[in-house]
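Researcher: Let's try something more involved. This one mixes different molecule types, so please make sure each is placed in the same coordinate frame as the others.
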Amino acid sequence: MRRNVLPGLRLSLGVTLFYVGLIVVLPLAALVFKAASLGPEDYWRIVSSSRALASYRVTVLSALGATIFNLFFGLALAWVLTRYRFPGWRIVDAMVDLPFALPTAVAGIALTALFTTNGWFGSILADFGIKVAYTPLGIMIAMCFTSLPFIVRTVQPVLEDLDPALEEAAQSLGGSDWEIFRKVILPLLTPALLAGVSLSFARSLGEFGAIIFIAGNQPMSTEITALLVFIRLEEYDYQAAAAIASVLLIAAFVMLALTNWMQSRALRYTVRG
Amino acid sequence: MGATRTGRKPPRVGDQPLFRRMLIGIVLVIVALLIVAPLVVIGVEAFSKGWAVYRDTISHPDTLHAIGLTVFAAIVAVPVNTAFGIAAAWSITKFDFWGRRFLLVVIEIPFSVSPIVAGVAYLFVYGLQGVFGPMLDEYGIKILFAIPGIILASMFVTAPFVARELIPLMQAQGRDLEEAATSLGASGWRTFFSVTLPNIKWALLYGVVLCNARVMGEFGAVSVVSGNIRGQTNTLPLHIELLYHDYQAAGAFAAASILALIAVFTIIAKVALERQGAGRVRRPALVASPAEKTQ
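Model: All components are placed in one shared frame. Result:
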């Protein structure tokens, strides 16, 4: 390796390691330590209790539903924002980031106000017999809102960089629009879509603020895992809180590994020499 | 064919007028329902009981205290995180060392960890059941259920914000300019302030703006470590929850309208900074770029 002439390695790396160690690694290690101190039997009993299992189920299923919705809607939105120009597209483009900028608690009470049976949307849906607020559907809508930007923002740059010559070649070979989209464009978007999907799913698994207002929070039916952790804390059952939180932490690490793997795949198609 | 070619290209995929209009229509309707409506409903609900209730909520001592605490947390957490982000970006992009990629992944961990998990984790460090809790208690130092805990939890959730804007950009810019400056005799600090900083200032500001928005809006992690003591450890998002569960919906929305306004300004700042080129180089650039391989 060539010798590096720049100064500041010790200082900058020292500051970085100290900060990451103190702020990120130490607390997570303490959590893992606390959960591990339970012993395998107690740990398993807590994380596989029927209430915990029900919370995993509603969290994972809602996150799945929200991610599938965002997959289609996010792709459509990214497509519209890169391919079409219409009055106000810049405003729509900026608005996509609102779910990231708006605090989750604010989003939570706003969505609840919209979807309760006397809210703007809730009252209309109630006429059709659909209840959203205080049901798993409400959880899904909150997750849709908070994780919407991920897929749009991972797909958009790839769509922008797509070489028009590829489509033109496919058109000159007589492909229909749908065929070209399916066989030429979609395969090129797939790595970015998958990366966006895994980010969106991971965010939905851990979301708390936006959900607790709209969810109803009934044990066994509309209680998400993050809330169960919070409830165990309020009951001063710290070991149970640590154990269930560690399940969320493991899920986060699995998603992080998956996202990194998918992003490195996605970059193969976007990084240009 | 060449002779008959008109100047017009065939329409691009998905450009038939009917399809195009339909897709734009569908997307705009969903954006209006899912993104615009929540923003509008905050404003409408905030003023549903009239201007007087709005004014009374905002000027209530508890609300003012919550605003003050939120601003204070941001004033401490954002600069510290910014300094960390710069240090992390400098070390990761200007040097090659073992474990660089691993460090990058560790920095990004808070981004995928649930805020509730973050809060619980801090409990097991500084709480009475935690590693340092009993010791701190002996000396009478209060971190949890007090302002330091709120700031620490905010720092956790926003730790990657500045670093992840700077790292891809500084990676793409390489090291040549800094190496030239130091070889001409400039000190490290001088190199940073007159060579590096001008090149990264917009991206830096972009990261700072996003970091600030998240610190001010953080709910889950802060609600675990704050203890929700009204008028003492209530940040603005926690105060919203308190009012909401107190059946003071109009008050909750009034407080929420402040945060919504901050969110709107954040987006305006974000768009303005993107015009300056910030946020363009996407992450993570550490997947060895061709330039790096040939060095």
